[in-house]
Every structure is written in structure tokens, then in C-alpha cells.
Amino acid sequence: MVEADDRVLLDWDALEVGETFEKYEYVLTQEMIDTYRKGVMDTEAGFPTVSHKVDVKQYNARYRDDGSVNARCAFYCYGPPLPGKRLTVTAWIADKYLRRGKNFIVTEAISVDEDGRLIDRVITHELKQPSEVGKKWGG
Amino acid sequence: MGGLERNYQIGDDVPSLVKQVTQEAINLFEASAGQTGPSQFTDEETARETLGTTGTVASGRMSVTFAIEMLRKYFGGDVFNHTGMVDLRFLRPVRPGDTITFSGKITDISREANGSKVSVEIKVQNQKGDTTGVGKGSATVPNAYLPAEE
Which CATH code is given to the segment(s) A19-137? Predict the structure, then answer.
């Protein structure tokens, strides 16, 4: 049975900078860390949180759109997360802008673990017309 | 303290980092966060529908991870994992089969309240010499690690 998609269709013009999403929580397991380190070919990679894309997780839970392409990403390291700890993410719409006729949304998120340790901060600029990639770079 | 001493100069090159991006690596990166369904990163048809490309692409966040690795190895995990940052703009897609090289050069060193902030410009190129990403990174190195000022 297909579940109904009750997400809101994105209205870029109406989207408010500063909109803050419900907190997102997850437990970072040793298996997640091991899989991440294997994928990035770095046995000491300290921030497996990168792959969780937590800054857009709650955006994607609230809105539906035509997809997106990551145009820019900043990542701030404060302390590597520990396996088995519950992480709480606060994410919000940090900015939006129109450039060369294309719409961008900037999301930002901060992760904190269950002991109150600050883990990281991520800021992502997403182009909301992903088909531009194929138009510009072809196959 | 001698064993801790590190020296940074504007213009210094950061040792480069080379990564071979495979579809398996992309799949593991996505799966590590529980993202196992088809996506533009893991499924050619989804990539064609969403991006208009004939094949999958790597998430820009993989490049972020690799830039973090390059700078962590340069500054040391004790410094970079607590004060480091990277900020990359993605100029071209990175695809499975690409070999990408990350390079960096120190552009600025400034005194901060908690040490000296060492700033690095970052460039990412694929095996064809095309630039796939540019940006910057930094770490704040405790002054105790640096040579004494004259």
C-alpha cells in the first residue's frame, strides 16, 4: 500500500527565512560509523554525521519539490560524535536567493549529543532546479 | 612543549589528497545514514529523471568529507576535529570512476582569542584536470603549538 504524501508543495516565494523545523533525533551506531568510513576510505574519519544530511532532513519531511542539487556546503567541526550516543539536530532555513533565474535555499543545522556536547554545524546551499545539472553538464 | 610545535606560513602547500570515487563508495556513503532507496546518487534512472544525466553522481558532501580528511591530516585531529571547517562550492559533478585530487594552500594566519586561525584555499580537480570544486577551510591552532613570536 502506498502511503499518502501529506507534505506541503514548496512555494519558494512564500518560504520564510528563519523557519525552524522540529528537532530531529537519531542514535549514531558503530555500524553507521564503520560503513561511512569504508565509503570514504578513511579509517579515522571523525564526522560520519556528514552523510546524514541532517540540515535537509526535516525540510524534506515537511516539503516536497522537484528535488535539489547541492551547490555549496560548509561544515564546522566541534567534536567527533561517539557511537551509541543520541544526537539532536536543530535545523532551520538560513537564507534563500535567486541567482541567474535559479532558486536556491540555504539550510543550516547544529547537532548536539545527549551529554550536551556540540558536535558540528552544517550549512548547505541547494539549487531547487536539479535538471540544470543535466542541461549544463550533459550526460 | 617542543614535541607539539608546528609551523605554518602563508603560501605553504597542504599535502594533496587523492580519492578514487566508485559507485560502491557512493552507495556506502549513502547507506551509512540509512539512505538505501534509489536516489540520484545510487540509481541511474533516478539520476536521469531528476538531474537529466545519464549516470549517477556523488553527493557534494563526499567532497566535503574528503576536504575534511585532507585538513585533518595536515593540522592533526586534535586541532582540526575541534576547530576546523571547510566550505566548498561544487562546480562540476563528480561521477563514479572519477579520480579527484584535493589540494590546498595557506592564504592567511590571524590571531584569534583562542589561538591562531590558519586559513587554506582548497581546489578539487578530476582526472581530466577539470575543477569540480573550490572553497576554503581553516583551523584554529593553539598558540602554544606555534613557534614563539620574535
Answer: 3.10.129.10
